[in-house]
């Protein structure tokens, strides 16, 4: 049994008891293709809700209220708006990152927010090149819509309800 499934089963036992966990394990063995996804396995929506409750007291529709929004000056003038999650919200986002997103497939060209990659690994690809262009994409994060985020989780194999909830946890004002 994959370690992610084993961890999910241990969590399920702690939330719902051994008998319900045995039923879930039986269903898992019978329909293992349903759970054939990378990362953490949620056996059902109740399991997902318990994971969220154990990490935070924030309801999924209250997420936007748990950001501290402020502006910082840019080098070339103007301001950049920063939406920083509260510690409580950050804990559930870290759970999602560590237990779900880090298991997703990522392009070899992506270096930001990827385990074992950094600004240094990105720069190494450009060393000794004849021409390097540096640019900033205007309003990059605002160009990503919640539907794009939800589709990431859907493509990872999560059902519609869980994908929608994960999308809410990973977005601010639907962006």
Write the layout of secondary structure elements.
Layout (H helix, E strand, L loop, with lengths): L2 H14 L1 H13 L14 H11 L11 E7 L5 E7 L1 H13 L19 H6 L21 H10 L4 H10 L6
Helix pairs in contact: 1-2, 6-7
Q: Tell me roughly what share of residues is in helical segments.
A: 40-55%
Structural class comes to: mainly alpha
Mean pLDDT level: 84
How does the overall form come out from the CA principal axes?
globular
Count of helical regions? 7
Order of helices and strands: HHHEEHHHH
Q: What are the segments in which pLDDT stays under 50 over at least 5 consecutive residues?
A: none
Largest sheet: 2 strands, antiparallel
Cα-based radius of gyration, to the nearest Å:
19 Å
- Tally of strands: 2
Strand content: 5-15%
Distance between the termini: 36 Å
- Give the strand order of the largest sheet, numbering strands 1, 2, ... along the chain: 1-2
How would you describe this structure to a colleague?
- There is one protein chain.
- The chain is mostly helical and 175 residues long.
- It has helices at residues 3-16, 18-30, 45-55, 87-99, 119-124, 146-155, 160-169, and strands spanning 67-73, 79-85.
- The chain has a two-stranded antiparallel sheet.
- α1 packs antiparallel against α2 and α6 (146-155) crosses α7 (160-169).
- The longest helix has 14 residues, at 3-16.
- The model has no long low-confidence stretch (mean pLDDT 84).
